[in-house]
Amino acid sequence: MRRISIILTLLALVACLGVKAQTSDSKIARLQADMYRLFSTNLVDSFNLVVEQLKEAAQQVGDERTFYKAWGNQAMYNFSNIGRDQGLEEIAKAREYAKQHNSKYGLLTSSYANASMLSTLKLYDQAEKAYREAIEYKETYFPDESGAAYYLGLAKLYVNQSKSEQVLECARKTLADPHLIPLHRLSAWSYLCIGIYISNSPNKYELFNTYYAEREKAKAVVGHDDNLGHLVDSEKAIINNDPEEALRQAEALPPGLNRLSSLHRALALMGRYKEAYEELYNYLKAKDSINNEEFKRWSSESAIQQGLVRMENEAKDLRLANQELELSKITSELEQQRLEAEANELKLKNQNAELERSAMQLEKATLDGITKELDLRQKLMDAEAQNQAEHSRRQTRHFIYIIIGIVLASLAYIIYRRMSQVKQLKAKNDQLSQAYDQLEKTTSVKERIESELRIARDIQMSMVPSSFPSRSDLDIYAYMMPAKEVGGDLYSFVLEDSSLYFCIGDVSGKGVPASLFMAQTIRLFRMLAAQHLAPAAIATKMNNELSENNEQGMFVTMFIGQANLTNGQLDFCNCGHNPPVLGLQFLEVEPNAPLGLWSELEYIGEHIEDIRHQRLFLYTDGLNEAEDVWHNQFGDDNIPLILEEHPAFSCQQTIDVMKQAVADHAGNAEPSDDLTMLCVKVMG
Q1: DSSP secondary structure string, 204-224?
Q2: Of 630, 629, 617, which is closest to residue 676 (Cα–Cα)?
Q3: Does residue 625 sit in helix, strand or coil?
Q4: Which of these, 210, 262, 254, lies nearest to 234 by C-alpha position?
């Protein structure tokens, strides 16, 4: 009986431990999803709070990899959203923590993240050193893991510096990796093509064609091209003297130095020398701007800071000198008064001595009589009175001299202050005159910028569909309202027969940079949707394209879907975006990363068998994070409640009632973010 009781107790303990482990895994998965969801927002405090909770949960269960990956994401987020110094400081903390706890994986992760940020800052020497450290940690402590990502990062560095031999070496080491995945193999052959193209090898054209053939085999295995495809194809067309194909591939490249250089070469090959010269000029101008912009900004900030420190030190020295001068003057006056007091005291002592001697003489005199004694005493009293009067006159003169000195010093100080104030008023008047002239110029520039932004807004709004198909098997409607003149939200769809591709997205940041990134994103989506790829494949190719030459670290969260209008099947891929509402429930989605942050990622797609006669409602965070004048948010919970109140509404009616609800909530508060909504219903 006792043995049975012990066995039951052990079984209960094992069950409790299993439940606790399952609970911890569930908490970590939830925090990971929240981290990727907030990664695409500007909610800095919320993001850092979730990451700290995830790091704490990972530490409690000893999940070292999740802990340091979360810390690396935190550094990259701060690098993009707060400041580059904050991102570098955060990864330095992670590295120091890994050293203190002897975590080799932490040192590996922090070195790789540090190298990526330094590469973005174009600090090539420091970035190369960080990549080499990551490779050393990997080969020493994690030999069974792939090191392809580190060598490919080095290859990208060397391409930017036109170091062909180093590019070729890194590409060959990548191909020699026994744990190489197909996508990394494709990128390695791409870098071999680029490296041999920029080299001075006498047989580089034969080697290029050999490498290109191997690259085509690797691309067939992957099923799609990598983010270097257009650049390699442009170089191949130039080698094979096919200028039209070279120009077409160059125009397909994203904006940047590679596109300008490829356009220059293709146009020159076609004999269009004037246009080729213009593209070469744009390339050199952009390269010079990239190389010098950061240095100029840091030098200017450093010079300004040093100037402020120097001015503060000079002001402090001047105040100290004035105080020392005042103290010296007071000390001199006190010393003069002390000397005068000692002189008076000495005179009084001498007079007392004389009086004492006279008294002794008077005491010895016996025959002078009472009259002489009285006369002598009277003389002594007169002398003492005269001495006292003289002493009083001297003290009065000294007091008058002190008063006159104080008055003269005060007048001199007042005159000095008045002259300083006149100079300051004159300087201020000059500054106000300059500021007024500058204000007139600024007003003119502001009016021109506002006019250009209105034109940019019209162009941006024309890029998203404004008319929607009228079909019996489909109901679709969308709405977009930027918070400023131009914004970063987007939506689009491509409809062919019974297949509907659709997407919604939110670009990081606001204004013109976000609108340009949004335009590039819509162009890529429509181009890839026209190729009938799966949503996950579209996301993977878009991520590779958007992350190429993404020096500003911009990204976009997206939901990409493909619906079959005949049988209601839905394939989709969520890329760090808010989960949509299907029917009255939020979809549980895979926490993929946003697009544009890191190249070479493989995105995971999902599938729903039948969504016919159910509303699929998608939105950006301008809806659920809309605030009233007291900063209360609209919230996620209100969305399914409003949908539940109007079950029979069409897609357009649904979006109209949601617009009215968020407008009633916000009241007089200014919108802080772009608002975009998309509603889809497959009728069958």
Answers
A1: HHHHHHHHHHHHHHHHHHHSS
A2: 617
A3: coil
A4: 262
Q: What share of the chain is helix, strand, coil (3-state, %, to 5)?
A: 70, 10, 20
Residue 253 has φ and ψ, to the nearest 5°, of -70, 150
Confidence check: pLDDT of 49 > 60: yes
Mean pLDDT of 112-141: 88
In a 3-state reduction of DSSP, which class is residue 32? helix
- pLDDT of res. 151: 92
Q: Give the Cα separation of 51 and 34 in Å (integer).
A: 9
Query: Which residues, in sequence order, are bridge partners of residue 576?
Result: 558
Beta 556-564 vs 585-586: how paired, if at all?
Answer: unpaired
- pLDDT of 453 over the 60 cut: no
Dump pLDDT digits (tens) for 231-262: 888 888 888 888 888 888 888 888 877 787 78
Question: Between β-strands 615-619 and 489-496, what pairing exists: parallel, antiparallel or unpaired?
Answer: unpaired
Q: In the structure encoding, which two tokens stand for residue 603, read together?
A: 């995105």
What is the pLDDT, as a whole number, of residue 300? Answer: 41
DSSP category for residue 579 = P
Q: What b/e sequence results for 193-223 when a residue is b if at least 16 CB atoms lie within 10 Å of its CB, and e otherwise?
A: bbbbbbbebeebeebbeebbebbeebbeebe
pLDDT at 449 over 80: no
- Compute CA 500 distance to the chain's CA centroid, rounded to the nearest angstrom: 37
Tell me how many helices (H) and strands (E) the chain has.
20, 10
What value does the mean pLDDT take over residues 392-404?
A: 74
Closest to 570 in 3D by CA, of 618, 637, 525: 618
53-85: per-residue pLDDT in tens? 989 998 899 898 899 889 988 898 888 888 888
Are the C-beta atoms of 186 and 222 separated by less than 8 Å?
yes
Q: How many other CB atoms sit within 10 Å of the CB of residue 637?
A: 9
pLDDT band at 559 (very low <50, low <70, confident <90, very high): very high
Q: Which two tokens stand for residue 508?
A: 């990081």
Range 102-125 burial, b when 16+ CB lie within 10 A, else e: ebebbbbbbbbbbbbbbbbebbee
How far lies 638's CA from each of 139, 634, 665, in Å?
52, 7, 11
Cβ(629)–Cβ(665) below 8 Å: no
- What's the mean pLDDT in 354-381? 64
The H or E element containing residue 537 is: helix 535-547
Task: Please state, in angstroms and rounded to a whole number, the distance separating the CA atoms of residues 292 and 287.
Answer: 9
Count of Cβ atoms closer than 10 Å to residue 487 Cβ: 27
Give yes or no for a contact between 596 and 120, defined as CB atoms under 8 angstroms apart. no
Q: Taking Cα atoms as reference points, which of 584, 620, 647, 613 lies closest to residue 479?
A: 620
Q: What is the pLDDT of residue 440?
A: 65
Cα separation, 168 vs 158, in Å, equals 9
pLDDT tops 80 at residue 612 = yes
The b/e string for 331-347 (b: 16+ C-beta within 10 A; e otherwise) is eeeeeeeeeeeeeeeee
